[in-house]
Specification:
Blueprint (H helix, E strand, L loop, with lengths): L1 H16 L4 H14 L12
């Protein structure tokens, strides 16, 4: 889990630079957490 925590901000920055929307980033992040069988309870972005 520390690996993900340490790299979460750079990962989001990379996805934003790739032109992904907030919703796309939310879904991608959720999918990664679920794949790794980690808890994911973040609220989806509004809008």
């Amino acid at each position: 889990m520390r690996f993900i925590e340490r790299n979460f901000i750079p990962l989001n920055t990379m996805m934003e630079r790739a032109g992904m929307s907030e919703t796309d980033i939310y879904h991608r992040t959720r999918d990664i957490f679920l794949y790794l069988k980690l808890p994911y309870d973040a609220e989806p972005p509004v809008g």
